[in-house]
Amino acid sequence: MGSELELLRSWFAYLEDTRRGYLEILAKLPEVELARDRGASYPTLIDIFAHSQGGLYFWMKDCATFPFPAQEEDSAAPPSLDGLRKDEKYIQTQIHRVMAELTEAGLSRTITRTKGRGSDHDCQVPVREALWHLVEEELQHRGELNALLWQIDVEPPIESWIDYAHAVGRMRDQRG
User: Fold this and answer.
1) Full-model pTM
2) What is the distance between the alpha carbons of residues 114 and 156, in angstroms, rounded to a whole number?
């Protein structure tokens, strides 16, 4: 078993690969399915995916020790599939940068989370907790997307961590 940092890097690579699968599935759906309010945590499939992207962006920006480059965005416009793709490329580029610069000691560094926008108080959050929170948040919304896709008879791009880890050689047979 590797270090916690190696494990986090593996999980973020896994999340990136599976997010790509969800974008491929969303691209195959008719516009009416993408735009339909499903009464979920966020109204549409695209809104749920965009929310996950927002979480990745805001937490990773805080975890980074470098400024994120400016990103063109039209926050007044509703999310679109093309916008999701563009944002995903940008966000994953920044995640790669954060993961490349992060050290085991850096996992203990704290970031400030101020009251408002999802927090009812000011607090200091260790980078490790922010990163594990993002894993949990991603899995929560992936489950939500899965359930909504099943409701319209669309098979989501499910790939378990174990299948993924074996496929990329991250897990080894421990029998000796």
Assistant:
1) 0.88
2) 36
